[in-house]
């Protein structure tokens, strides 16, 4: 299956983005041999800085297998940004869709056409206090199981030193290093040809996230927490504590009357 041509718009975006990235970030890029030379595939990437999509895209661009990102559909309607998004073939995600699989139909079509589709399975910047990957959403697993394509786990670290997650001001000095490590394809064969139940998708997603985390452990030279940060569990616990505090305050108020 042929690879996607880079094309004018991707080259134009590279001309704009590569010079500042080269100036701001040194590069420690590894694992490019694990990027398939031909055929459709998915990359599953961790997310710890607003800068890292550009830094990761630079890495992926240099493999000659340009990625197609999933992005909010609204970005495709905004002037120059929209023109670049459309021209580079990025994939709009219509969040109002009630059919989870149809929201990724374009991603499935792209993979089946021999292209690379990049997923950030966490769905947002990590909220783990130490920058480790959180629990993932099931979109990448859905597309992977539908297409049976290779899933390449990619860990990155260092763009977050330039601009930490949720920070507003970058730290330019000293010059930071962007570390990337792409691993071998994740083995999802045991999930093939089965009903894509929520439980199966959750388990497949956990396998993908564990592979990304192992790559990041190698980059950072340290062990990740045994249990990944789960924003849903944290929100539930915060609501429980808030409700308990309110109940305690009401009891105290009642005792004072």
Automatic annotation (TrEMBL):
Keywords: Acyltransferase, Transferase
A molecular function (GO) term: acyltransferase activity
One matching Pfam family: Acyltransferase
InterPro entries associated with the record: Plipid/glycerol_acylTrfase (IPR002123)
Taxonomy, superkingdom: Bacteria
Location of region: Disordered: 219-257
Biased composition (Basic and acidic residues): 219-240, 247-257
SMART domains in the cross-refs: PlsC
Domain Phospholipid/glycerol acyltransferase, first and last residues per copy: 41-159
Protein name stated in the entry: Lysophospholipid acyltransferase family protein
Source species: Streptomyces lannensis
């Amino acid at each position: 299956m042929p690879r996607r041509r880079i094309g004018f718009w991707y080259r134009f975006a590279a001309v704009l983005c590569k010079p500042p990235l080269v100036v701001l970030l040194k590069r420690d890029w590894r694992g490019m041999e694990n990027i398939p030379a031909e055929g459709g595939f998915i990359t599953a990437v961790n997310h710890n800085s607003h800068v890292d999509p550009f830094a990761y895209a630079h890495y992926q661009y240099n493999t000659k297998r340009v990625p197609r990102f999933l992005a909010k559909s609204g970005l495709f309607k905004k002037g120059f940004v929209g023109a670049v998004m459309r021209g580079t073939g990025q994939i709009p995600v219509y969040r109002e869709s009630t059919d989870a699989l149809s929201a990724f139909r374009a991603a499935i079509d792209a993979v089946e056409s021999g292209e690379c589709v990049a997923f950030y399975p966490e769905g947002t910047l990590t909220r783990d206090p130490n920058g480790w990957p959180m629990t993932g959403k099931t979109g990448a697993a859905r597309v992977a199981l539908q297409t049976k394509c290779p899933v390449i786990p990619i860990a990155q670290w260092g763009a977050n030193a330039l601009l930490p997650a949720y920070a507003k001001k970058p730290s330019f000095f000293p010059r930071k290093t962007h570390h990337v490590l792409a691993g071998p394809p994740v083995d999802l064969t045991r999930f093939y040809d089965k009903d894509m139940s929520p439980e199966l998708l959750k388990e497949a997603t956990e396998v993908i996230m564990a592979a990304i985390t192992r790559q990041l452990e190698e980059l950072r030279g340290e062990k990740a927490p045994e249990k990944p940060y789960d924003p849903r569990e944290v929100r539930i616990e915060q609501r429980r504590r808030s409700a308990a505090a309110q109940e305690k305050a009401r009891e105290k108020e009642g005792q004072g009357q």
